[in-house]
Write a structure and sequence with these properties.
heterodimer, A: mainly alpha, B: mainly alpha, extended
Chain lengths: 232, 124
């Protein structure tokens, strides 16, 4: 390739914005060929490929983000958009209110408690433990909690995404093995444990699961910010 | 499309302003999510707002259908932590895997148990 052209494009937002979209479309097409295989997670495939390209080409994350920020920005309105299925299926939500609240409190305490316990067990420093503690919540909230606890928000963002992908990959085989057939319960669990990435997975499996996943994500963001101090 | 995205952004804005006054422990978009559900429910029968309703639902559906791509930019940030991954990657992965499996199991069990005890499966 023409070197001057590459230097010009690699620093422009357009290349990384267009590149992210193209890789994503290719990854979803690939995942669509084997819809039953949760290991072909389009989010994981896209991140892995782009990260590899950036490392190989020696491009800094800051440069990449200048283009990708336009996609990143849509996380806000997308969270608001989760209110629409909430409105459309309000009666279904109301009839599950008691199990939802019980699962929220116990699940939220478990998510933070288990993370802090294992992080101590593996001998991580207090700053890393604080960075990991809110990892089940949505990225923006987790980063705010982490910096409030003297953690490293950038590390938190990476671990949040890792947690999301991990939950999105294991939820379907795990729930099938546990013989859980109630999609409101399955969705709620993955939204609580794996925030928006779990919710994206839930929507691709079942609309009711997606609905409950989105609600769990929202509620857990609030509760985690209140209870995280109990563990640190 | 334009009406839909405008409505979503306005609700996010209202949510952010509310979050500011609440001291910031509830994220703005989450407040916006609750507010838009309430407002849609309250205005559901109003004829004049029907086109706005329809467009909001359509825009939301297309955003939620592509939710996954929105996490890519933050996820690529992992390349800033390659040294930590090289040194402690296995431990990090173990923590994430163990805590996620435990959280999924506990949450789904409590949900099912409480739903059964409160008669939620009575019609099955």
């Amino acid at each position: 390739m023409n070197n001057a052209l590459w230097v010009y494009l690699a620093t422009s937002p357009l290349l990384w914005l267009a590149g992210t979209l193209v890789v994503w479309l290719a990854a979803t097409a690939m995942a669509g060929l084997r819809p039953g295989n949760p290991l072909l997670n389009p989010i994981m495939l896209t991140i892995a490929l782009i990260a590899a390209v950036l490392c190989f080409a020696g491009i800094e994350y800051k440069t990449y983000f200048e283009g990708a920020q336009f996609i990143h920005f849509l996380l806000g309105p997308a969270t608001v958009a989760l209110g629409i299925p909430l409105y459309e299926k309000l009666s279904l939500v109301k009839s599950n209110l008691v199990p939802m609240l019980a699962a929220l409190v116990v699940g939220s305490l478990t998510a933070v408690g288990a993370t802090v316990f294992f992080a101590h067990l593996f001998g991580f420093s207090p700053s890393v433990v604080a960075s990991l503690a809110p990892k089940s919540t949505t990225a923006a909230v987790a980063m705010a909690i982490s910096s409030g606890l003297q953690g490293d928000p950038a590390l938190t963002a990476a671990v949040v995404v890792l947690t999301g992908i991990c939950g999105a990959i294991i939820v379907t085989p795990m729930m099938n093995a546990m013989r859980i057939k109630d999609y409101s319960a399955r969705g709620f669990a993955v939204g609580l444990a794996s925030h928006g990435i779990g919710t994206a997975r839930a929507y691709s499996v079942d609309p009711v699961a997606g609905l409950f996943s989105g609600i769990a994500m929202g509620l857990n963001a609030v509760l985690t910010s209140l209870i995280v101090h109990l563990f640190l | 499309m334009l009406v839909g995205i405008t409505i979503l952004l306005v609700f996010q804005l209202i949510g952010e302003v509310t979050a500011y006054f609440l001291g910031g422990f509830v994220p703005g978009p989450v407040i916006g999510m609750a507010m838009i559900a309430v407002v849609l429910t309250l205005t559901g029968g109003v004829k004049m707002l029907e086109p706005a309703h329809r467009q909001t639902l359509e825009t939301s559906r297309s955003i939620l259908a592509n939710l996954g791509i929105l996490f890519v930019p933050a996820g690529v940030g992992i390349i800033q932590h390659l040294d930590l991954i090289r040194d402690r990657g296995f431990a990090l992965l173990a923590i994430v895997l163990l805590s996620t499996v435990i959280t999924l199991a506990v949450t789904v069990w409590v949900f099912i148990l409480v739903k059964r005890l409160s008669g939620g499966y009575a019609d099955e």
